[in-house]
Amino acid sequence: MRHWVELFQNRWQFVRGITMEDGVGCNRLSGTPPRTRAFGVQSELRKSVEGNYKEAVKKLNSLQSNPSALAKARNNETIEGNAKKMEGFIQRAGMKVEQLDDLSIIHVSGTKGKGSVCALCESMLRASGFKTGFFSSPHLVEVRERFRINGKPLPQEAFTEYFTTIFDRLEETKTSHGAEMPAYFWFLTVLAFHVFLEEKVDVAVVEVGIGGFFDCTNVIRKPVAVGIALLDFDHVKRLGDTIEKIAWHKAGISKPCRPVFTVPQPMGAMKVVMETVIECGASSIECAPNFESYDFSGVPLRLGLTGKHQHTNASLALQLCKTWIENYRKETRNKHKNASDFQLVNDSKWAVSSAADVGMATAKPFVVPRYFMKGLEECYWPGRNQRIKHENVTCYIDGSHTPQSIQACRNWFMEAAKEEHCMLDRPIKRILIFNTRSQRNEYNLLRPLIGCRFDGAAFCPNITGDAASGKSADLTDLSVSTDEQLVRCQRYRAAFEKLTDEETQAGLSLTAQNESVDSHNCLWEDRKTTAKESSVADVKETYAGHFQRTVTEVLPTMSDALRWASAWADQEKDAVEPTGDEPTRTPRQKPHIQVLITGTMHLAGVAIEAIDPELIYRPGS
Prior knowledge:
This is tetrahydrofolate synthase. The chain has 621 residues and is of the alpha/beta class. It has helices at residues 40-61, 67-75, 79-92, 97-102, 114-127, 156-173, 184-199, 236-239, 243-250, 267-279, 310-332, 353-356, 370-378, 403-422, 442-446, 482-521, 536-542, 558-566, 601-611, and strands spanning 14-15, 18-19, 105-109, 132-135, 147-149, 152-153, 203-207, 225-228, 259-262, 284-287, 361-362, 386-390, 393-397, 428-434, 456-459, 551-554, 575-579, 582-586, 592-598. The protein has 19 helices and 19 strands. Strand 12 and strand 13 form a beta hairpin. The relative contact order is 0.12.
């Protein structure tokens, strides 16, 4: 069998379907005809653009800080100090902080779903006819993904030009500023503001990096609207080990006289969010209503982002976009054809109880305009609830990295995998590929996945291919070595095996109890079964297949993990059926492989890089 990933073994030679060697490439998933290079000049130009881009990314990577330096810097940070420091970098880059006030910004924080909320906002406003800018993190394949204009990542040439301008300005002024250059994410944030100003976007959607109060994006002083997505435990060493402490950080992006919207939160978090928003002087704080309370004019709506949890994100995005449109209409006196009034839904059932419990108002649902519906349906946000299918392998990719988001990922995967299985006429094998960051509790993240009954589980570093293939500068992480990542993977493997063993023992125990009770209460016409006849040994034999232990592996790269997963299709042996004196073999259908890849956005990124980097641009199958 020609394994799925073998189609991409030479992917390092490809750039958008073109090989540098012979000028012929192919679309690696769809099998569409290759694009050819008409002129040698175009090839040389392309090489030049790529070379300049790679050099820019290498310079950018020089701004990555080691963990000890980051920890030291964070211990000394204050809200005022960070803001002043960021303002200094902005000025050194040739901009004024007042220019940021002229950007029409939607600013979003949160733990789970803030990127999806931003993507939905960008998609709806773009569908409404506005020029959009979107700054997000992290990137999946190339760093330029973080900067999207009208939904598309900056082209390599444009990124290099903007990068060089800002990097050189900061380099030229560092001598008079203590030889200080901004850290990696701080630099990218400065660059984002420069890009949005130069591109003259109508709206800039900005996703917070970490936290809120201390985040460098909090230099934004006059956002049109602020959103706070679902809160969960993440970055606890920096943000705190309680949901209340985390809520304080996340709500810290609220600004005086600016509206804030959030989603239903745990009670303690909701209370802190409301108190913090009020302390920041926001004009209002409202909770987004249930998604089902909006009026879609009878049109069946299918969100571009799959998973029921995306309904919560969509409701928050709808409120943010409505507020932005209303503000635009007020400032421009309705000069845009789609900046019209919104008709509210007159229904008392939209109130959210968790908001009411702390005295927070619930935002009113409204009749959703057709251009908003178009944006919701066409939103594409790779690496989040993404399904990629090729022949007998389907990859389910989601960069979930908190306990709640892993649970949501699990629910999405089980529903989507079951739906796919019902459409197949063959057996399936389920494989998990997992990795996470060091500060996260692997037991809390892995526990929701145990019930998925995986046949195999692979743990690998956030590395795409082997050393011979080369290493993408865009995916370089200087904060951790490959050896350290492999040690962590061994730890994750041990945790997974421990959890599966515990669940198996619990399942066998429960099964034995149920079997004993059923046997005691059952009467058959031709046979009476007593409780003694149903021993634990019988139960173990009966359910041995159901509780079969998952095969686990630690592998060096994502490409190795994908090859290992696809190889499960060849492990089914032909069935032996005796006929007469000689047994015959009946060919069995090869199983369909369902692969769940989750644990961190970085792992989702290397998976997409290994399968097809162009998936950052277009939907998969």
